[in-house]
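Quick note —
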Amino acid sequence: MSNNWQITPREVQTLPVKGPGELATVPPEAYSDIETLEVQAGFSVLRPGYLPAGCALSESNYLAEPIGEIYMAYRLANGLPCFTVTQRMSAGPVHHPYVKENSVEGVTVHGLPATYIDGMWVVESLPQKAGKTITIKPEELFENATWMEGPKHLVFEYKDLLIRIDAGEDMTKEELIRIAESRE
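Predicted structure written out below.
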């Protein structure tokens, strides 16, 4: 396990506004098979061995650098989402996401430290300009951010990969951990 990465959430009452910045829109490349996705990403993809009833892999993408992340969506047969898994190489700085007070819990995945977050900040939609770099004014984007309870996140590091599993309010913390511990 790499020692270059760690997650240290910052609990806040409101989402802080950062200075002006640019956000690059990077169109994901969809892959129908995991082997091609692994070649593109440059690392072996971990897949859950356990899936909740009715869930199946429906989409896999590679978000190129500067993001350098794979994204896998699992859905029910009717198209409703079950959960998503994102993975990237974990070498990098400490990650300090902003979270609402009392929304974070330290848990373990196969005896290793993991972070469970219950909820997420919801901000206004970003403008869409396909393939272009857009300039955003964070003070306009984040000023009306609200904390939404319900979505669940489990973040952990395994074999030099940073893995995040995101699910809706119907998934329990225990089921997220079961999915994480079933990796293949």
